[in-house]
Specification:
Layout lengths: L14 H10 L9 E3 L6 E5 L2 E11 L11 H17 L4 E11 L5 H18 L2 E9 L4 E12 L14 E5 L4 H18 L11 H8 L5 H10 L5 E5 L3 H12 L1 E6 L7 H9 L4 H7 L5 E6 L4 H5 L4 E9 L4 E4 L5 E3 L9
Parallel strand pairs: 4-5, 9-12
Antiparallel strand pairs: 1-2, 2-3, 3-6, 4-6, 7-10, 7-11, 8-10, 9-11, 12-13
The structure holds adenosine-5'-diphosphate (ADP) and magnesium ion.
The site of magnesium ion has 6 residues, from strand 8.
């Protein structure tokens, strides 16, 4: 090796969150209006009586989506959903998006129209305005970056780092289905590549495939919280799997978690398909990503407010940090939950 060569550290040595931390630690917040910087689902900026909430996500062909089984209309819809999901995770309401695109000459006007038809549908569904973006060419594939801007009244924003010992962990919807949907699509892709004449049959798995290709963000939950007068003590959206999100809330709040496996909502189709793939369904919920449900904590005295809200499951308790993050299995065992986030570079 050349002794004069500069030190080269592989980004995998730091991992995703280690890398973000490493690159951004020398950026103190200089403006008083920057209420929340890096580290949550979205940043929060003071804006008169209201707070402005901002979040950005990038989707890259070949990494986040595969054009073999992702219709462009679905892709456009999903790209908006993943962004507004981060705004809802702050208990805020998304209002605007910007869309930046880079694409190769493989993409026609008609193809890009399809993409925008999906973006349009999502804008309607979530009540957001497309207010700008950027368009450029790329040597290969399609990349898109969306920024979502939202609003929340001062004092109503909910962070990741404010869970308290004794609070209850709640989760919306059901978990693990989007991951299995992806596994099914990948399997059908291999079948198709081996025998291009064979049409994939996804009919039986439409719930799981739908959760992967056409997820929804939990706008309805933010509305329901407001109507019930409920302010969660902490919240995050579940984009990387329950384990990873539990880890974020716990490490940032300086607490631990005790989760009941029986309290983790799993759809019957997820149960059946997981077993078919020889995976434990709870593993799909803990480590599968892209569910875009909400994980949040509430004060124990607020339990009556969520008890009768459809689609909310109380699945555990916030415990002292020294007790770690643990799963109480249906079989009666207690296991530590490990969260890697993902490695992806
Ligand atoms: P989420 O999964 O909710 O979209 P991420 O895990 O992508 O959130 O990001 C975690 C935090 O790190 C966010 O506050 C995000 O804005 C910030 N972040 C991610 N990448 C960068 C970057 N390259 N520079 C600065 N901040 C970043
Ligand atoms: Mg998020």
């Amino acid at each position: 090796m050349d002794p004069n060569q500069e030190k080269r550290t592989d980004v995998n040595e730091l991992g995703e969150f280690g890398l973000i931390d490493h690159l951004t630690k020398k950026f103190p917040l200089l403006n008083e209006s920057s209420l929340k910087g890096i580290g949550d689902d979205a940043a929060i900026i003071e804006n008169g009586d209201m707070l402005t909430v901002v979040s950005t996500d990038m989707l890259i062909e070949g990494i986040h989506f595969d054009m073999m089984y992702t219709p462009l209309k679905h892709l456009g819809y999903k790209a908006v959903v993943v962004n507004v999901s981060d705004i809802y995770a702050m208990n805020a309401t998304p209002k605007q998006i910007t869309v930046s695109l880079a694409f190769s000459n493989r993409f026609s006007v008609e193809a890009l129209e399809e993409l925008y038809a999906g973006i349009e549908l999502a804008c309607e569904r979530y009540g957001v305005d497309l207010v700008g973006g950027d368009t450029t060419s790329s040597p290969k594939g399609l990349s898109m970056s969306i920024t979502a801007i939202g609003q929340v009244a001062k004092g109503k924003q909910v962070y990741r780092n404010t869970a308290n010992v004794g609070d209850l962990f709640c989760v919306t919807g059901d978990l693990g289905a989007a991951y299995l949907g992806l596994q099914i699509l990948e399997r059908e892709k291999q079948v198709y590549l081996a025998a291009p004449g064979v049409k994939p049959d996804l009919g039986e798995q439409s719930y799981l495939v739908g959760r992967q290709l056409k997820p929804e963000a939990r706008k309805d939950m933010i509305v329901a919280f407001d109507q019930a007068g409920l302010l969660p003590t902490s919240m995050i959206d579940i984009s990387d799997g329950l384990a990873s999100e539990l880890f974020h809330i716990c490490s940032q709040s300086g607490v631990g978690a005790f989760v009941e496996e029986s309290g983790v909502p799993i759809h019957p189709d997820t149960e059946v398909q997981a077993i078919d793939f020889k995976i434990d369904p709870i593993t799909c919920a803990l480590s599968g990503g892209e569910d875009y449900e909400l994980l949040f904590t509430i004060r124990p005295e607020d339990v009556d407010k969520v008890k009768y809200m459809p689609g909310i499951y109380i699945m555990g308790e916030v415990v002292p940090k020294k007790d770690g993050i643990k799963l109480h299995t249906k079989g009666g065992n207690i296991h530590p939950i490990t969260a890697q986030g993902w490695k992806h570079f």
